[in-house]
Description:
mainly alpha; two-stranded antiparallel ribbon; 64% helix
Amino acid sequence: xxxxxxxxxxxxxxxxxxxxxxxxxxxxxxxxxxxxxxxxxxxxxxxxxxxxxxxxxxxxxxxxxxxxxxxxxxxxxxxxxxxxxxxxxxxxxxxxxxxxxxxxxxxxxxxxxxxxx
Length: 117
């Protein structure tokens, strides 16, 4: 396995485990297993990325982009950064939100929740 593939495998495992905490294992594992070439164990460990790891990572991001809440995008930021400019966004892809913007939205949401209770 190439160094890039190992990095993607580690980052995907980290992202999946974060999603399990946020979305729960059922949704996370179902979405992850919808990605062609991606094999994920019950604990969120990535076992295989298929023949084209970069394509697998891109398809993984597309799968979770449908659930594009700020928290989901924030947990994907290390993976998006690892891909860098090596991929060309498709017309339907959104650009990642800058991290400080996500933090502001999360803080704003937390403040609204705290004010309502």
